[in-house]
C-alpha cells in the first residue's frame, strides 16, 4: 500500500476544467448480482463466495491491467482509514462484511465489493469532468454486465439495497472549494436552494462528514425517472451557476475588502510556514485560505496541485503511513506541521 504514498492521484492534479473552484468530479454506480440477497442479508460464507465471483468477473472484463485487490479483513484499521482519506473506499465498507476493494494503479477507477450493495464502481477525475467520468464508467459498466448478471427490473431499472438508489443506481458528485461564499455568508442560502432542487451537500468525505476547509460535495439524490445523462446534465448546469456565484464573490472581496482578504491569506501562509504543531482541523482551514491565495494569483509560485496534495497528505492516516507507525495526536500534529513546512519550502526552492 506504500505505493500510494509516492503516487499523486489524478483528481488532485488541479488541472481539470474549472479546477480553481472544483477539486474533482466523481460518478459511482451501485450494482447487485442476480440470485443473491443484498449484502447485509447474506451469510459470511455467501459474502465470501460473492466476493470471489465479482473479482473473477472484473478480471475477465479486463477493465484493469493490474488491479490492487484488498479484503478489508486483511487490512489494519489504519490502512482502512488511509484508503478512506484517498476516497477509494467508504466508511461503511467494513471488515466484518467480507468487504473488499479493487483499485486501478492510477486510482481513477475503483470498485467496492460487499458494501451496502454487492458492487459499487467509481470513477474520479480532476475538475468539472462529469461527462468524462460518465463516458468512462459507462464503458466499464457495459464490460462488467457481460461478465456479471446484474439485478435489474424492466419497470424500475437497477435494484439496490437503498430505495433512493433504485433506477440508474448512479451518484454523481462534484467536490467544490467555496471560500468566498463562506466568507460572504452566502453558503447557507446556496445549501438551502440545493436541497429544494433535490441535491445533497456533504463534506470532504461524503455522508456524515463536516464541510471543513470550505470544501463541499454536491451530488444528486434521485436516481429514478431520469437517464444518467439527464442527471449529469442537470447537476452540471447547477454546478456552473455555483461557480459563477463563487467567482462573483471572489471579485467582490478583491474589490471591496482586499486588505482584509490579503491579511487573512498571508496570516494563513505565515502559520503554515512556521508552525511546529498544527491540528488537522486548523490545517485544513488554513490550507483553504492558502489555496484561495493561489487561485487569486497572490501566491503564483505555489502550484495548485501542491496545496491539493497537502490537503490529503496531512490527514491523520496518511501521516501515520508516512511515519511507518501509529502516532499519538501530538506527534501527528508535529509531523503535520513539519510536512507542510517542508512542502512549502520545497515549492519555493523549485520555483
Task: Give structural notes.
This protein is of the alpha+beta class. It folds into two domains: 3-249, Glutamine synthetase/guanido kinase, catalytic domain (Creatine Kinase, Chain A, domain 2); 257-350. The protein has helices spanning 3-6, 44-61, 77-85, 130-147, 179-183, 187-196, 228-256, 258-274, 280-295, 304-313, 316-323, 329-350, and strands at 22-31, 68-71, 100-103, 109-113, 119-126, 152-153, 157-158, 170-177, 199-202, 215-220. The strands form two sheets. The protein has an eight-stranded antiparallel sheet, with helices on one face. It has a two-stranded antiparallel sheet with strand order 6-7. A hairpin with a 5-residue loop joins strand 3 (100-103) and strand 4 (109-113). The radius of gyration is 21 Å and the shape is globular. The mean pLDDT is 92.
Poorly predicted ranges:
none
Instruction: Count up the helices.
Output: 12
What's the CATH class label of the largest domain?
Alpha Beta
Tally of domains: 2
| % residues in beta strands | 15-25%
Here the CATH topology of the largest domain equals Creatine Kinase, Chain A, domain 2
* Average pLDDT metric: 92
Neighbour order of strands in the largest sheet: 2-3-4-5-1-8-10-9
Biggest sheet, open or closed, and with what strands and sense?
8 strands, antiparallel
CA radius of gyration? 21 Å
Q: What is the number of strand segments?
A: 10
> What structural category arises from helix and sheet content?
alpha+beta
**CATH superfamily heading of the largest domain:** Glutamine synthetase/guanido kinase, catalytic domain
Shape, per Cα inertia axes: globular
Spatial gap, N to C terminus: 31 Å
